[in-house]
Amino acid sequence: MSHCFRLFVFSHLLLLSLWAAEPAPKIPDGLVVLTFDDSVASHATFVAPLLKKHGFGATFYITEGFEFVQDKEHYLTWAQIKQLNADGFEIGNHTRAHKGVNTQKAAEIDADLVHIEKRCTENGIPVPTTFSYPGYATSPVATEVLRARGYRFARAGGARVFDPAVDDPLTLPQAFDSKPASTLEQFKVAIASARDGKIAVITFHGVPDIRHPWVNTDPVKFEAYVAELKRSGCTVIAMRDLARYLPSPKK
Ligand SMILES: [Zn+2]
């Protein structure tokens, strides 16, 4: 072995060990995860351009449930989903048919996950590594299926900040669930709870959501939420980006 080659190997081993020893960055105060459920057309036409303008990350949780297949006026097309991915946003899994996982057996949950994973692969989108529970229903069986398929983070329902010290990352809670009656004051309280190692995970549906008015967010109100994130200096990321701060435990 030449001296040069040995030096080359040694320096690379050294770099590798330094890299491996690098600790995860500290969770900053004001760390906010934005999530958007149900494949609503306004995610591509209104939400993404606004977030992009501010350099904010977000996850779009895709399901082919509801009228996704028939109604291409109100639901995203796969071409739009592909573009969201190309624009740097995360595409997450929200299951094939939007069934409550608490009513399903492991094999059915697995098949519904695989369906969206395959559609992603067909469209050149990375296989999702994060999930949101349809209708916020969870089950231990579903959590185990997600774990076995290599999912890192899954958002359930609730109304409190995510505390990685106590919460399972595969049933993590949301701090704010945008509804028609939600207020900017409530939003401010939610994002202010993202401190001391805790993370505010925010749920939206359509902005607007014509087909599901009970989860509608008015676009003007959404602009105020986004302005507040900017004003308060939040770090706004997609769910998958949590892996940077919360590396998986060594196996
Ligand atoms: Zn949903």
Architecture overview:
It is a single chain. The protein has helices spanning 3-21, 42-54, 78-86, 106-122, 140-148, 184-192, 219-231, 242-245, and strands at 31-37, 59-62, 90-93, 130-132, 153-155, 176-177, 200-204, 235-237. With 251 residues, the protein is an alpha/beta fold. It has a single domain (26-244), classed as Glycoside hydrolase/deacetylase (TIM Barrel, Alpha-Beta Barrel), CATH 3.20.20. The strands form two sheets. Strands 1, 2, 3, 6, 7 and 8 form a six-stranded parallel beta sheet that branches. Helix 6 links the parallel strand 6 and strand 7 (200-204). It binds zinc ion (ZN). Zinc ion (ZN) binds next to loops.
Element layout with pairings:
Layout: H1 3-21, E1 31-37, H2 42-54, E2 59-62, H3 78-86, E3 90-93, H4 106-122, E4 130-132, H5 140-148, E5 153-155, E6 176-177, H6 184-192, E7 200-204, H7 219-231, E8 235-237, H8 242-245
Parallel strand pairs: 1-2, 1-7, 1-8, 2-3, 4-5, 6-7
Helix pairs in contact: 2-7, 6-7
Zinc ion (ZN) is lined by residues 37-38, 94, 98, 134.
Provide key terms for this protein.
alpha/beta; TIM Barrel; binds zinc ion; six-stranded parallel β-sheet; 251 residues; two-stranded parallel sheet
Radius of gyration: 19 Å
Total strands: the figure is 8
Oligomeric state of the chains present here: single chain
Count of domains:
1
Taken in chain order, the helices and strands follow as HEHEHEHEHEEHEHEH
Distance between the termini: 34 Å
State the low-pLDDT regions, or none.
Answer: none
Q: Could you describe the largest sheet, including whether it forms a barrel?
A: 6 strands, parallel
Structural class: alpha/beta
Proportion of helical residues: 25-40%
